[in-house]
Amino acid sequence: MNNPYQNAVKQLENVAKFIEIDKKILEQLKSPKKVHKADLKIKLDNGKMVTFKAFRSQHNDAIGPHKGGIRFHPNVSEDEVKALSMWMTWKCATVGIPYGGAKGGIICDPKNMSQTELERLSRAYMRAMYKNFGAWKDVPAPDVNTDGQTMAWMLDEYEKLVGHLEPAMITGKPLELGGSQGRTEATGLGGFYVLEQLAKVKKLNKKKTTIAVQGVGNVGYWFMEFAKKAGYQIVASSNSKGGEYKGKKITNEQLLELPVDVLVPAALENQITQANAAKIKAKYIIEMANGPVTPEADEILHQKGIISLPDVLCNAGGVTVSYFEWVQNNMGYYWEKDEVWAKLKVIMDRAFSEVWEIYTAKKASLAESRRVNPRMAAYILAVSRVVKAMQLRGR
Question: Catalytic one among 67, 82, 91, 103?
Answer without folding.
Answer: 103
